[in-house]
Amino acid sequence: MTISLRWGAATDTGRVRSVNEDSALVEDGLFAVADGMGGHVAGEVASRVAIDALRTNAGQGLAEAVRLANRAVFERAVDDPSLRGMGTTMCAATLVEQDGRPQLLIANVGDSRVYVLRDGELVQLTDDHSLVGEMERDGRLTAEEAKVHPQRNIVTRVLGNEPDVEVDQFWLDPFRGDRLLLCSDGLFDMVDDDVMVHVLRSEPDANEAAAELVTLANEAGGRDNITVVLVDVVDDGGKAEAASASLAGTTTKSRPVERVVRDDEPAEPAPAPSNRRPRAGRATRHLTWRSALFVLALLAIVAGAAGGTWWFARTGYFVGIDRHRVTLFQGRPGGVLFLDPTVEHRTGLRLGDLPPARRAAVEDQHEFTTKAAAERFIDRLRQETTTTTTTTPGTTSTTVLPPTSAPTPSSTP
Ligand code: MG
After folding, report:
1. Ligand 1 centre and the CA of 41: distance in Å?
2. Which domain range does residue 335 map to?
């Protein structure tokens, strides 16, 4: 199924400003409006840099291209102190293929807008990232109040102020007769919705209609730069007829506009109309690669933790009691998780054979960092045992032998 588009655009400085800080992009398959802000020429630079970066990076996917546009404006402002603080809005639309069907993908940052005129009704697709836009969505302001609010020009999200930016994305299933309107606030602040609807319905030529909307904004005062981009869906491969036929005889609105917010990129690039359409297949591979890296990192952490636990559980030695005999164990007293200590070797010594001062150390399962140190401790136990328990029937005498005395044969298991 193919989609054919026709488009037109108009822009004007307006009647109050001396410079037009808006920029627009009108190419086959890729459309955008940017409304720059900043002192001197900074706003003009911001919107131009953003539009150029969007065009250059359109192959990366629409949202990514907008993020790269943000980065381009940000870096330009960092490089040039005279441009510091500049920023720009950006709303963009492109034709892509999703699940084998052509779709219009829309991205937005700031308070420029994308609308669709469908079945004679104008629907705003994007959310304004502005103070009044947020208050309106929270129910603290009505649309009428928002339109005349003194702080209506405060934008809460723009390109160029931070190294990264969140980009809103929307999908629109296109039907023949749909008319997409991308515009800066110089239009909708000046011209009422019903007047815009009248122009969009009555003027079939996109360039004529765009020019007419700019003229109306100027006649209403032209307090800001005005930019209008119109995109008409002129062929949808018979989809609109099919939809109408299936609904014939009913009064149901045939093709309701759905504002579908999607974070993921489309799975396949569009056929035809532009060589700058998002190559989303690449984005998908990108994701898979990232997922693989994530899984690898996770495995490394798990392996590291398991290795660390094993190391902790198995590196030490301690001397305790096993089967009533003094025993050298490898591991930690009581074990660590499922890693129980193991018997290295069991001596012939009984707890009762040991001098009282040593019994406590064995009962407490005294730990050693090396096997050699634990063995030296056991050797001392043997020596002290022989020296303290030299017993003669009838008499009990204690002879303290020098520590260099040879081990007794009885202490060998
Ligand atoms: Mg503006």
Report:
1. 14
2. 315-390
